Amino acid sequence: MIDPAVLPALHASHGGIWLREGGHTQGLAKGQAISRAAETPVLLLNAPLTGQRLGYPELNGLDLLELWAFLHPARFLVPTPKGLAAALGLPVPAAESDIPALLQSAAVAMLNRLAASDWAEHEGAWTAAQSLHRLRWAWSPLVAPRIPRPREAERWLFSKLPEWEEAQPRPAPRTVSLDESEVLARLDALTGVQAEPRPGQRAYAAAASAAFRPRAHRDQPNMLLAEAGTGIGKTLGYLAPASLWAGQAQGTVWVSTYTKALQRQLDRESLRLFPDPAMAARRVVVRKGRENYLCLLNLEDALQGGFSGRAAILAQLVARWAAFSKDGDMVGGDLPGWLPTLFRRNGSTALTDRRGECIYAGCPHYRKCFIERSARASADADIVIANHALVMINAARGRETGQRPQRIIFDEGHHLFDAADSTFSVALSGQEAIELRRWIMGPEGGSRGRRRGLAARLSDMASYDEEGGQAIRAAVDAAQALPADEWLKRVVAAEPFGPLEALFAAVRGTVYARAADAGEADAGYGLETELAEPDGALVEAAQEAALALDTLVKPLIRLARRLEAVIEDAPDWLDGPARARIEGAVASLGWRRDLIAAWLALLARIGGPADPDFVDWMTVDRVEGREYDIGIHRHWLDPTRPLAETVLKPAQGVIVTSATLKGGGEWDNAAARSGAVHLPHGADRFEAASPFDYPGRAEVLIVTDIKRGDIAALSGAYARLIEAAGGGTLGLFTAIRRLRAVHARIADRLARAGLPLYAQHVDPMDTGTLVDIFRDDPRASLLGTDALRDGVDVPGHSLRLVVMEGVPWSKPTVLHAARRLAGGGNAYDDRLIRARLAQAFGRLIRRAEDRGRFVILSAAMPSRLLTAFPPGTPVRRLTLDEAIIAVSSSPRDQSLGQPAALGHQGSESGLP
Ligand code: SF4
């Protein structure tokens, strides 16, 4: 058996490269490290990241993260040397040069666990190890001989997973009104007797209870807009009345979030509602879009030869995880976020049901399917934790599924506008159209996999019902007009095939002609232009494309009608599963019909009159000069109108809440961005200011001597500020290119000072993992863009400085220009920027004992935007040198926020 302690171990960071071999650790050059790793398998932690540090992305080796995923699937691990040491109970290395030795000890410790009798995840490991051996997994020679062969054959994953039970549909909830004293008693029970009194939270809970009253008017939910500053404790403030109502009325409350981080936090809070984990799992259910979950049929296909090479190894590790997962959620659930990136994302998306090809009851795993299980569990739950997009889709389609949300709490409510904007938008693009073609036609040419077209999914229907069979054949014929594989190449070469490809060629021509006039063509990223004054070629192409889509939609409508007729006739062969499958097909045909109808409306607009309710434009999507999609887009000028019609008006009670609901603006802004303005009686309002001592614990520094566009100066400022703070810095950018440029200039310098720097769009890791790493190491810093502005909840010392590269102005897109015009010009822009500043500032102080500084590297920060910050927060305008001195004193220096030296909001010192 190979002794892992003798294997060479490699560690590479921005600070250097170290190899341990034969009991000695030495620093070495990139070239030496690469050739050593090519000669012999080396132990390493996170091969893509190590490869990136070496400038050799294809680096392979014995990755300890893969071994962890095999050993403890579904167990959390921060994928850093420190995180690994903590998880295994090993000493945390004091210096980077000690890391290779840690990797060796960690390999020994993990391999020893394979034979341990108390290894919790041993079931299925022997069988998986045999399969991985056949796939030549690098760890196999070390892993397989150490796992004792089980006496009996192990149960395969698909027989091991539990089946969900079919349950009676839940009756409508009872009509009840909550008693305020009971709500407050429930709140006390949730917070615990020891908790300090929080008057803001009690007032919040009382206000939230009103949303659960019986509804008084048609088309008017009991609606509350509630702004509760950070630290009020709004989560338990709304869970108290929500859980009380759910119990008394026997109904379901949907709690909707925008970020996965809050979803996870809410899931943890559910244990306060139901301390028994089994009960909590039944009463509180996390629900996500189906594309998040593992599809067992896709997994089975991957395990049986559908995947090859590294993707097949990933499939084996995912199968190990599926057997221990809480809910089969692959994105933000208990599958480590870093696992798919170890495989360069090769294969992980093909394991979910992204393309809507589910065959429902026709699937052999239907009764064990994670997606079906979560949908069923949510029908009977007290609290369903979902996201804004899913709540909106369920509200829109809820009549069909019987799961229309009726009582909804939108937490992170300041994102409701954006979520509605994307949910109710339409895009006719090459990527969207080819997806439709695949859904109808199935695999073409040499493509592999289990994907089936419409004809194969409904073959029994085609043989039973002649008219239905004809409709399927007509749809497959008509789908030939949609773009096929390699469509983009043909379009770029001006050799489009079929009317849709011809349309995209015309769109591309117009975009390049007009966007180039605007001087944007060289930027290498997305290009767009308004859909106005189309030329003759575009109008003609749109008409041809519309004809083709019209020919396609007709047989789909006919087919849906035939399927409905079959359900009504109920022939002998239509047993329960067959019925469920046909109902599923009717629903998904309906969604495609709606999609094509929306495309047709969009095409009718080309050459026709503009609709003032919509903003239409055309795009060529590019990354670093490489095109990847072409399309026409339509967004509502005000997306809260469809939000009000489809989600708010049919609901009984709605709470929209956030720490920054007004976005540093006025209540009118909150009412407009939540859709309350479109309700006959508007919404009630509640406000509770944060109890935190912002004047004493936070400070805003506006650095006035960094010239705009000077990357060298910007990079130097970031490096010096991070050094002054000793790490713990969140750096926020509005452009990926600048983020990358700054990171490239400063990462090595900071690493040499023992200050690791991570970055979104640079490090090959998902955002959730980057935030986990940042949280775990107080000396680490993280650079990122929009998603980090308010998706990061890092309380304590790990986040003590936020640095924004400048004022977060909006990008001058067609959509933004239209909304700006309709929304009051500068005032509209100011509201958006204040909201972004308020969200970014909100990252800094998460608990009463936190303290920190917020730096904006821009002299152009207008004073009128400073109302974005909490009242009384000191604001100073100063030079970078002065800012460095200020930051060096934070946060250990208790004098942060000395009033004598600092001005205050609205009268800040150092004003030019
Ligand atoms: S029921 Fe659908 S989603 Fe579930 S495993 Fe089967 S094909 Fe996949």
SSE layout and pairings?
Blueprint: E1 9-13, E2 16-21, E3 24-27, H1 30-39, E4 43-44, H2 47-54, E5 62-63, H3 64-71, H4 81-88, H5 99-113, H6 125-134, H7 140-143, H8 157-160, H9 180-191, H10 199-209, E6 222-228, H11 234-249, E7 253-257, H12 260-273, H13 277-283, E8 284-286, H14 296-306, H15 309-322, H16 338-342, H17 370-379, E9 383-387, H18 388-401, E10 407-410, H19 416-423, E11 426-429, H20 430-441, H21 454-457, H22 459-464, H23 466-478, H24 487-492, H25 498-517, E12 527-530, H26 536-569, H27 576-605, E13 614-623, E14 626-636, H28 640-648, E15 653-658, H29 667-674, E16 684-688, H30 694-697, E17 698-703, H31 711-725, E18 729-732, H32 736-752, E19 757-759, H33 767-776, E20 781-784, H34 786-790, E21 801-804, H35 814-823, H36 826-841, E22 852-856, E23 874-878, H37 880-888, E24 903-904
Parallel strand pairs: 4-5, 6-15, 6-16, 7-9, 7-10, 8-9, 10-15, 17-22, 17-23, 18-20, 18-21, 19-20, 21-22
Antiparallel strand pairs: 1-2, 2-3, 11-14, 12-13, 13-14, 23-24
The protein binds iron/sulfur cluster (SF4).
Residues 295-297, 353, 358-360, 363, 365-366, 369, 371-372 line the site of iron/sulfur cluster.
List keywords for this structure.
912 residues, alpha/beta, eight-stranded mixed sheet, seven-stranded parallel sheet, 37 helices, 24 strands, 46% helix, 13% strand, disordered C terminus, binds iron/sulfur cluster
